[in-house]
UniProtKB/TrEMBL annotation:
Lineage: Eukaryota, Metazoa, Chordata, Craniata, Vertebrata
Species this protein is from: Cyprinus carpio carpio
CC annotations in GO: plasma membrane
Annotated signal sequence range: 1-27
Compartment annotation: Membrane
Protein name: Nicastrin
Length: 739
């Protein structure tokens, strides 16, 4: 009897294990039947600085809400007050991302509150996002990325970018601090600097957007104003952030974990990457501090941008126009400086992290002051910075100067002479060059960080007199179209790569102006200016690579073979690069993709092809004929032949990288007011999915039935267990007795 009972028990266990295994196998397929995963989504993430946190996040288990498409004012009222099924996941077109829903009786600017021109009564004209931020009935927001219905302007940045870390303060031009007198970005609504307690995602895939709309129309759309019936279409967004409060708190908690935890967890990371620099005469990279007999003219621009959504920063006018102009300037200027070198060295620098309180320029100035760079501040003769030069509103460029430093007579004289040289260099070009009022301060620029260290002569060249002409400053819509980079229909990618758009021709003229101006500023002879002309084809290739398609034949030829072979998983994935600085080498290893592109493009424009082998190129210090202190060495893929093969070769160039990380993190001054303290929170999961949700009553009924079935199962199990001998007994076999 016992053996039979044991056999039955074993069979039951085997059956149970088989059932569990079968259930586990089917788990994924069941989940797929319940949920529709949305892949092409981009989150808004949390950033922190010395005083506060900004961005968005979900709860640790994700936030869930019933879908509702925002199309009218009544939809917003339904979401915020009258809808019977809160909380809601709001789906909105980009036009509603910044639109005032209530109408002012006078002209106003829609920011956090309505700012009216006249004293007429104005209703609560608050942006859609700000109204939803203050409501407990909103679980999250999904924004459909589309050009349809795009507003005439959209800038989620502040009206006064980098206002707390520039040169103007209580001790330096106090009447100019905080954009007093000149509001540089009047269209800024500040959304990127708000802290939202719910997740906000961007939807990039049109097909998945249609799936969302169909789910909403089939299950959630109101009929004659009446509430929809269950089941309803719901969305769940996961974007839980580990860091909270501010950088000081985050870094302190991370340090404590590193000291006392067996498995420490990093909560946030400083925004960081690399600056890229080169010079017309090589500088000894192993020698730090003051460079003897060197006087340098710095030509600079920024490498980064940002937007409301993580790593969605095309930055066409805001950043790319400056990068392309300075690269084309170097291409035009470099051959002449080698044949007829001017007395002064020209130092070209591309600063990373400038959108976040001047990370890159602050680090370079800090290193110069600490004698930890190839030159110091005393080597700097003057500076010309390239700002936004996309010429969006005409053919005029403006030379911005600092009115405070110009109170010094020698500085004022040099600045005036710089302006004269630039205007002289503009002769014969289809550009007009002028300067604003002498009392007007500098726009947001890296030059301000140099002025904090020393009052050097300098100018910022831009296409705006006062406020920015860029209507989409620091937003995801500052793209190729905003810079008027468009192509005729029917062109192949290789034809688009070399097609000279109007924007390319305009920026080539700007680059020619800058190159000639720098040559004169460095002391070059005026009779060499006609030999300095930027190539529109190079500009066209740069614009295509930075704004349309980075995975193109020219970029592939400039990069190392190991990068080009990785395809879609490398920095040559399809589409344009994004200009958000990110977390740099501390987290992601190599430099940011844009940084590497600029580094290798510079090597191509200024370098010399050598006959070194790959191993020699990677270890040039082993060769007595090569000088690693003066040059860097790049093993590049080379252009493709007719049959598609490439012949890699080694390029020698004086192109260098230097760290772009805020000095605050080297000094461990996480609450610094002098340097950038921006960090990015870490997270474990970023995902989105939709599903059908039943009514609360049905859910409770289902739960009740489940509990009842569980109790009944326990009861039956107890009964069977207690009556096992009776239920599983059989006729006893007559024992066989052996004598």
């Amino acid at each position: 009897m016992r053996k039979m009972t044991d056999l039955i028990s074993i069979n039951c266990v085997k059956l149970l294990i088989s059932a569990l295994f079968y259930t586990c196998v089917l788990c994924s397929s069941v989940e797929q039947k319940i949920y529709v995963v949305l892949n092409e989504t981009v989150p808004c993430v949390r950033l922190l600085n010395a005083t506060h946190q900004i961005g968005c996040q979900s709860s640790i288990s994700g936030d869930t809400g019933v879908l509702h498409v925002l199309e009218t004012e009544s939809d917003l009222d339904w979401i915020l007050s009258s809808g019977p099924h809160p909380p809601y996941m709001v789906i909105m077109e980009t036009a509603f991302f910044n639109r005032c829903c209530n109408t002012c009786l006078s002209v106003c600017v829609c920011v956090c509150v309505c700012l009216c021109v006249s004293d007429l009564m104005c209703f609560s004209c608050r942006s859609v996002m700000m109204r939803m931020k203050n409501s407990s009935r909103v679980a999250g927001v999904a924004v459909i990325i589309s050009k349809t219905g795009l507003a005439d302007n959209f800038s989620p940045h502040t009206t006064c970018p980098n206002q707390n870390t520039g040169v103007y303060s209580e001790s330096y031009g106090s009447d100019l601090a905080n954009c007093n007198g000149t509001v540089w970005n009047p269209l800024g609504n500040g959304l990127s600097y708000e802290d939202f307690s719910f997740p906000v995602f961007a939807l990039k895939d049109e097909n998945q957007t249609q799936v969302l709309r169909k789910c909403y129309e089939d299950h959630n759309q109101r009929v004659n104003g009446s509430a929809p019936q269950y089941p309803l279409c719901a969305m769940q967004l996961f974007s839980h952030m580990h860091a909270v409060t501010d950088t000081v708190t985050c870094m302190r908690r991370t340090d404590l974990q590193n000291r006392f935890s067996i498995n420490p967890e990093v909560l946030c990371d400083p925004l960081s990457d690399f600056n890229v620099w080169t010079s017309t005469r090589p500088l000894n990279n192993s020698a730090k501090g003051h460079a003897a007999d060197e006087s340098v003219v710095i030509a600079a621009t920024r490498l980064d941008g940002r937007s409301f959504f993580w790593e969605q920063a095309p930055a066409a006018e805001g950043t790319v126009s400056g990068i392309v102009t300075l690269l084309a300037t170097i291409q035009a200027l470099y051959p002449v400086t080698q044949e007829a070198p001017p007395p002064r060295n020209i130092f070209f620098s591309f600063f990373q992290g400038e959108a976040f309180d001047y990370i890159g320029s602050s680090k370079m100035v800090y290193d110069m002051e600490k004698n930890d760079f190839v030159i110091d501040m005393n080597n700097v003769h003057s500076m010309l910075e390239i700002g936004q030069v996309g010429l969006l509103s005409g053919r005029s460029l403006w030379m911005h100067s600092d009115p405070v430093s110009r109170q010094n007579k020698s500085v004022d004289t040099e600045v005036s002479e710089m302006m004269s040289r630039i205007q002289s260099a503009a002769a014969g070009l289809k550009l007009t060059v002028d300067h604003p009022s002498v009392s007007q301060p500098l726009p947001p620029s890296s030059f301000q960080r140099f002025l904090r260290a020393r009052r050097i002569p300098g100018l910022v060249l831009a296409d705006h007199n006062t406020s920015f002409t860029n209507r989409y400053y620091e937003s995801m819509y500052d793209d190729a179209e905003n810079l008027n980079v468009t192509y005729p229909p029917g062109l192949t990618p290789d034809e688009q790569l070399v097609y000279e758009t109007d924007a390319a021709k305009s920026l080539a003229e700007v680059a020619t102006l800058v190159a000639r101006s720098l040559y004169l500023q460095a002391g070059g002879e005026e009779n060499n200016l006609n030999n300095i002309t930027a190539d529109p084809k190079i500009v066209a290739q740069l614009l295509y690579g930075f704004l349309v398609q980075k995975n193109n034949s020219w970029f592939r030829s400039l990069l190392p073979p190991e990068v080009t072979k990785k395809g879609v998983n490398s920095i040559l994935s399809p589409g344009p690069p994004q200009f958000y600085i990110g977390l740099g080498p501390r987290v992601h290893g190599p430099a940011h993709s844009v940084t590497r592109f600029v580094q290798y493009i510079l090597a191509n424009l200024t370098g010399t092809v050598t006959n070194l082998t790959e191993s020699q190129c990677q270890n040039p210090s082993e060769l007595s004929t090569e000088n690693k202190d003066l040059f860097s060495y790049f093993w590049v893929s080379g252009p493709a032949s007719v049959n598609g093969t490439r012949e890699p070769f080694c390029v020698r160039a004086s192109v260098r990288l230097s760290k772009a990380v805020s000095p605050a993190f080297e000094l461990l001054e996480y609450g610094s007011r002098n340097y950038s303290t921006w960090t990015e929170s870490r997270w474990k999961s970023i995902r989105a999915r939709i599903f059908l949700v039943a009514s609360r009553e049905l859910e409770m009924l289902t739960l009740g039935v489940g509990v009842a079935v569980l109790l009944l199962s326990l009861l039956v199990t107890y009964f069977i267990s207690s009556k096992a001998e009776l239920l599983f007994s059989s006729a006893r076999e007559t024992p066989t007795t052996t004598y």
